[in-house]
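Dear Dr. H.,

I hope your travels went smoothly. While you were away I took the liberty of generating a structure for the chain from your last submission, since the lab meeting agenda had it listed for discussion. I wanted you to have the full record in hand beforehand rather than looking at slides cold. The sequence, exactly as received, is reproduced here:
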Amino acid sequence: MRAVVYRETGPSSVLQVVERELPDPGPGEVRVRLARAGVNPTDWKFRANAMNGDWSEVVPGQDGAGVVDAVGPGVEGLKQGERVWTVLAQYQRPGGTAAEFTVQPAERVVPLPVGASWDLGAALGVPAVTAHRALTAGEDVTRLAPGSMSGMRVLVAGGAGAVGNAGIQLARWAGATVVSTVSSDEKAALAVAAGAHHTVNYKVGDPAAEIQALCPEGVDLVVEVAFAQNIGLDVQVLRNRGTIAYYADNGGAEASVPVRGTFAKNLRLQGVLLYTLGADLVEAATADVNAAVSAGAFRVGEDAGLPLHHYPLEELAAAHDAVQGGAVGKVLVDVSDDLG
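The corresponding predicted structure, in token form, is as follows:
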């Protein structure tokens, strides 16, 4: 099988296309033949900064979509030929999704709803599960379903990003009023296409005043990509007992938290990292995300505010560079074209 590997950390040039033996699934594992793989910021960060374990060779990639090709002993709930998507495929394992086949624990492989495309399946994983956890990190909602966020007001920072897009789509499906901050008219159009009711350009005027005018009772929850940069604004616009769920360190690795402002409102500051969620939260997230996909409420593409950028497997380095360079939309890798 073809795979892309790296044997040392560094720039995208450390990635190499190789031929490898087809791996066999062990007990509790399945082998997935991949049609599409997704590329996320975490992929190039692992490659550039950490090998993700003690292995001498790593196949990158957390996200992908394809067909179960073989089932190991003891696996229940998945069968050969089933269409699936992956979550946490590279976490604490050397074999991710930048390959024609990947062997994964069954709990990291999720049935792909009928009618969902490979592009959509490969775009779920990191963005959708992260967004789900952010939206359920407060004290009001633990699961997402139609109406579960009815009456709530959600602020999604950076709504044109992949996690922001997922947050908008899932919050809108769950019944929330969604406001998104953006940095340009073009990104505002993407956030609206994803389902945002309102957008606020944080580079123009007084964004806090604009958000307060839209949500005079305060925002219930903030899905935050730039905690260090936006903590002051978030505290201003949140209601009492609101939540900031932050999942990245864009805008700075250290934050200065207004102590009185946060405790006076009884605010909750919730960090979100996919890798340490725990199996129960990942399982809840994949179930709710699949429900949204089945309902047609979670989509990809320009008309869903998430433009797609396709690269062949042999050009994974260019795909990593595109994500690292801030590509707007979702970067996907075309692994196989003959899975239907």
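Two observations you may find useful: The chain has a mean pLDDT of 96. The chain has ten helices and 15 strands.

With kind regards,
E. W.
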